[in-house]
Structures are given as C-alpha cells and as structure tokens.
C-alpha cells in the first residue's frame, strides 16, 4: 500500500491510523511525502522522500508558478489567472485546482520512481495530493482518495484531472476517477453520499509523557488553538494575543495553546487565563466547554470527536469549508476573525443547542467503522482488484 501525502503535518497525520491498520493486517506499507510530512517516520512507518533535494515548501511554490499556465492551457483563457487576481473574475475552484495540479507536476516523476521500486497494489492519496492518481494510473493499480475535510472534493478532483491531462499523456496513462473515497465526515454532515465511512482517529505525534491538560475546574473552560499550519505563515503569538484580548472579560477560564510562541510575549494575562505549549489536541479538549480555533481539518474533526462546541475563525484555503460545515450542523459558529468577540464564545457556552448538536455528532463518529474495519473493503476485489495488466510503465 503506497500512501501519498503532500508536505505538511495536516496532510500526512490523517493517513497514519489507516497505515497502522494496514500494517497490522499484514500488508506492506510505504508513505511517500516530503518536508514536514516526513514526521510520519516517527510513527514507525517506512517513509520515502519524493523531494529530497528540494527546499522546504518549494513544490508548493512550483504549483503556484504553474497556475497561470495550467489555467490558460485548460480553459483557453491566457490571462485567466491575472483576471482572477484583479477581481474581474471570482477566484474559484479553478485556481485551487490549478495550483494543486502544479504541485503534482512538480513531484510526480519522483513519486512514480518511488512507486516503481515499491510495486504497490494500491495507492492511497490524500485529497490535496492528486499526484497519487497519476502514479496509480501509470502503474495500472487503483487509487483511493482520503478526504481531509468535511466537504467532498469531487469537483476539485475533476478539475485537477483536466489540468493534469498532459501529465497523464506523458506516462501513457488515462485519467481515471478514484476507485473509492474515504470519508471521515459524520453521517449527518455528509454532503455527497457514496464514500467509504472511516472513523476519525487522531494522530498528533508521539510523546513519552503525554500532557493531561489543566486540572479540573468548577468553571467553564475555553480552549484557544491555531493548529500547526497557521503559525508557519503568521505571528502565532500576536494572533493568540489578539484572541486573548477579545476574551478578557469572558465569564470562563481560557486556556491559550501558544504552540512554539513565547508565552511571555502575551504580557500579563487576566485572571483565569493561562497558556500551554505544543501538546496533543486530544489531551487539551478533555473537560473544555468550547474551543476557539482557526478551522483546520484536524482541529475541526477532533472537536467533533470530543463533542465540544466550536467557534471557528476561518482564514484561508479549506478553513471556510470546515467552518461552514460546523455551523450548518449546529455544532458551533463560523465567524470572520476580524469580527470575533467574546459574545460569540458566550453564545455557544450559554445556548445548550450547540452542546447537544456536538454530542450527537460525537456519538455518530464513535459508531463509524474504525480503520481496521475498513482495511478489508480497500483490499477486496471491489476496490483493489488486479489491474496490473493496465500498467503503462514497467512494474
């Protein structure tokens, strides 16, 4: 089983529980990724780097650089990217799909080379890594897509396949849809039926002495976290500080997860407000009454799994989708970060409907098939089959 993930903890960590389950069932597993994704090796998984000589994040920059060309080649509008940036046309799914296809182009040759050495029977790729579809088609084996977010990316995938048509042709392969789609979304939040349900099992890295979170309190407690990706592109301390200031008068304890930022940079904190460094989110959400966060997929799913109401402050990329899914289910609020106030947190704390909806979702997720229960579906004839006769490169 070849697992293919983009650079980033939020891309590779969701694949770890299923990779563990595959190994426990006796299958050979290899994770192909790069950059921050190489942390999968710390989970005891074999890892191959498809961009070993490339500076951190360079493949994403390659995708951005290729976006204007891919948009022009696919839609026949040479200045489409420029028109989108200037606001003449809405920046829509075409822009994202072109960027992700450009990312795939940047890594696909090395990814195919890794696959040829490993000879997988199945390629499992996360939804932001369409190179997996090209690799699978080139080797004549099925591809399975793991959705990272509550929303299905079928339309995005279709656009990416259109952009990658020349890349498929270069390998003599024919674009084909994924043989199956793994959907971690709770049943009541599914927007597109037909996926293979997969229970969300958190993996946030190993710790020798895992934090247990702050001691129990009689007061309501609110957790504030901005995940692992956002601190890479912004001043984490400044952002957490602004959120803390907005909640200074909230009638609740506030726990600020500052990650690697210096807590001292926040200055004196009001009574009832404290900080914690990097820690597994599953340990921090225990006993809290609400979570304020950035809208990352991993954080969103962990809050749903814990049955905790959320105030989601989306910033870019997929976070508006995640925030919208939470709000639509009634398990929390989606709020523009610029408009955030303590009143939004008070609303989810004081209105029991948010906690009730979050509890319903928690029960739904607990009843979904665990990774070990999904392995037979992925390795059975309905998905895996035997398609090596369709290989376009020597295997």
UniProtKB/TrEMBL annotation:
Residues of the Erythromycin biosynthesis protein CIII-like C-terminal domain: 243-378
Signal peptide bounds: none
Segments passing through the bilayer: none
GO biological process, one term: antibiotic biosynthetic process
CDD domains given in the database record: GT1_Gtf-like
Alphabetized UniProt keyword annotations: Glycosyltransferase, Transferase
Family matches, as Pfam families: EryCIII-like_C, EryCIII-like_N
SUPFAM superfamilies from the UniProt entry: UDP-Glycosyltransferase/glycogen phosphorylase
Ranges where the Erythromycin biosynthesis protein CIII-like N-terminal domain occurs: 20-227
One of the record's GO molecular function terms: UDP-glycosyltransferase activity
Family: Belongs to the glycosyltransferase 28 family.
Name the record gives this protein: Glycosyl transferase
């Amino acid at each position: 089983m070849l697992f293919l993930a983009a650079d980033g903890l939020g891309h590779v960590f969701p694949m770890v529980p299923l990779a563990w389950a595959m190994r426990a069932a006796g299958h050979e597993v290899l994770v192909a990724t790069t950059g921050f994704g190489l942390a999968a090796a710390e989970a005891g998984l074999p890892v191959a780097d498809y961009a070993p000589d490339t500076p951190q994040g360079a493949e994403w920059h390659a995708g951005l650089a290729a976006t204007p060309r891919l948009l022009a080649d696919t839609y026949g509008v040479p200045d489409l990217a420029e028109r989108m940036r200037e606001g003449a046309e809405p920046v829509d799914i075409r822009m994202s799909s072109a960027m992700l296809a450009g990312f795939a182009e940047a890594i696909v040759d090395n990814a195919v080379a890794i696959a040829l050495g490993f000879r997988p029977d199945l390629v499992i790729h996360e939804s932001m890594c369409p190179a997996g579809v090209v690799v699978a088609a080139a080797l004549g084996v099925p591809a399975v897509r793991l959705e990272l977010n509550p929303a299905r990316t079928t339309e995005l995938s279709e656009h990416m396949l259109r952009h990658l048509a020349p890349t498929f042709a270069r390998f003599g392969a024919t674009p084909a849809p994924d043989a199956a789609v793994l959907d971690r979304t709770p049943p009541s939040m599914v927007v597109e039926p037909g996926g293979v349900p997969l229970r969300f099992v958190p993996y946030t890295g190993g710790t020798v002495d895992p934090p247990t979170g702050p001691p129990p309190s009689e007061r309501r407690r609110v957790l504030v976290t901005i995940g692992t990706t956002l601190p890479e592109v912004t001043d984490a301390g400044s952002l957490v500080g602004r959120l803390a200031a907005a909640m200074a008068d909230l009638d609740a304890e506030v726990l600020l997860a500052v990650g690697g930022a210096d807590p001292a940079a926040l200055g004196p904190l009001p009574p009832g407000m404290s900080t914690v460094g990097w820690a597994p989110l599953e340990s921090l959400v225990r006993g809290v009454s609400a979570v304020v966060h950035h809208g990352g997929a991993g954080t969103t799913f962990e809050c749903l799994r814990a049955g905790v109401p959320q105030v989601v402050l989306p910033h870019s990329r997929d976070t508006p989708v995640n925030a919208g899914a939470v709000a639509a289910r009634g398990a929390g609020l989606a709020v523009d970060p610029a408009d955030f106030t303590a009143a939004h947190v008070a609303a989810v704390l004081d209105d029991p409907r948010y906690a009730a909806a979050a509890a319903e979702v928690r029960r739904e997720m607990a009843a979904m098939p665990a990774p070990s229960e999904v392995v037979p579906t992925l390795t059975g004839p309905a998905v895996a089959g035997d398609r090596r006769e369709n290989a376009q490169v020597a295997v």
